[in-house]
Amino acid sequence: MSLLDRLVSWFRRRVSGQFTGLFKGRDEFDLTSGDIARPLFYLSLPIIVTNLLQTAYNLIDTFWLGQYSTEALAAISFAFPMVFLLISVGMGLSVAGSVLVAQHTGANEEAEAEYAASQTVALSLLGAVILGVIGYVFVEQLLGLFGASPDVLPLATDYMQVISLGMAFMFGFFVFIALMRGYGDTITPMLVMFGSVLLNVVLDPFLIFGWGPFPELGIQGAAIATVFSRALALVVGLAIMFRGTRGVRIRLRQMRPDLSFAKKLVGIGFPASIEGMGRALSINLLLVIVGLFPTYVVAAYGIGTRVFSVIFLPAIAVARGVETMTGQNVGAGKPERAKAAADFAARTMLVGLGALGVVAWVGAEPIIAAFTDDTQVIDVGVTFLRYVAPSFGFIGVMRAYNGSFRGTGKTLTAAGIVLVIYGLVRLPIAATLSQSALGYRGIWLAFAASNVLGAGLAYGWYRRGTWRRVDVTDGPSSPGLGDDVEPSVDD
User: What is the pTM (predicted TM-score) of this model?
Assistant: First the structure.
C-alpha cells in the first residue's frame, strides 16, 4: 500500500471513528436495492461537506478581502460569478462523465466505466487549458460588460487573470469529484478537499496582507492561494484515480482523445454546460442591474450570494446524490427506484431548506455583519436575505428533480428549466422592478419569484415521465477497450 493510500485510509478511519453512523463508504450501502433514504443520506452527506469546504474557499476570500478594503470586497463580488461562468462552460463534461460512470457502474460494466472516466479526464483538462487562455485574454472586457465600475474593474481583473491561468487545476479537481461520485464514492473527494481548504486557510492572509516574508498581494494573493491549493488537490486526485484502489480507475493508455467518444461526451455534457452557464450568466447579468446602484449595494449582493451558496449546499448535494442514484438505477434497469429517490429528495429538501429559510430570516443581521462592519452594506444585505429566505424550500425541489433529469442523461431538460426560470423570469422581473419605487428590493423579489416558479416547472415536467426513455450508454463507448486495458493485480 502506497503512502497516499495509507493516508487516505487513516483519514477515513478517523472520520468513521469520530462520526460513527454518519459517513459510510460505497461498500457499506447499495444504491440499487433496499431502502431509499439511507443510501441517499450516506451518498449526500459527504457531498454536503465537500461543497461546504468548496464554499469555504469563497467565504475565506470574502472574509479576508472584506477586512482588506470595501473595494476589494466589491471586486470579488464581480469575480466570483465570473469564475462560476468560466467553470460552467466546461463543467458539462464532468457531468457527462459522472452520468456515464454511474450508469455503467449500475450495469456492472466496470471496463466501460473506466474508459469513460479516462476520456473525461483527458478531454476536460484539454478544454480547461483552452478556456483558461480565453479567459485570461478577455476577462477585463467581460467584467466591463457586466458592469464593473472603474474603481473595481482593475482589482477584479487582477483576481480573474490568476484564476484563468490556473483553470486546468481548478476544473480538473471538479472532474475528480464528479467521477468518484458517479462511482458512488463521495468520502474520498471530501477528504482531499479538506486538506486543500486547510492549505488555503493558511495561505490567504499571508498572501493578501503580506504577513511574514510574503509580499502584500491584496486580491491577487487570494487568487494565488486558491489556485495553488487546487493544484495540489488535483495531483492527489489523479494519483488516487490512476491507482484505482478507491473509486473509479483511469488508465493512461485510454486517455488518448477519442473523437467518437468526445462527440458522445459533448452531446450529453453540452446541455449541462448550458445549465451551469445559465445559472452563472444570471448572476453576472444581475450584476449589470445591481451595478447601477452604489458600491455598497454591490458589496451586499456579493455577500448575499455567498451566504446563499452555503444555505443551498444541502440541495446541491442531494441533487448530486439523486443524479448518481438515478444513473446507477437506470443502468440497472430500475427506473421506478430512480423516481422514488427523486420524489423523496424533493420532499425532504422542501421541508429542510424551508426551515433554514426561517433561521436565515431571523438571523439575517448577524449573518451579514459577520462579513463586514459597513452599516450600509449590512442594511442592504439584511433586506436581500429576508426577501429571498421564504423561497429557500422551493430551490430544493427544483434541484432534486433536475438532478434526476441529469442522472438519466436528460441534461437538455434540466438546462431548459434553468434557462426559462432565470432568463425569462428572474432577469426580466429584476430589470423591471429595480427601476420602480422598489429600487434594489425589486431584484430581491425576482430571486424569490423565480425560485417558486422553478419548483413548479421542474415538478410538472418530471411528472411527464419522458426521462424514462433515455439510455446514454448506447452508442460509442469504449472502442478498442480490450487492447487498451493494462493487466494488473487489480483487474
Answer: 0.77
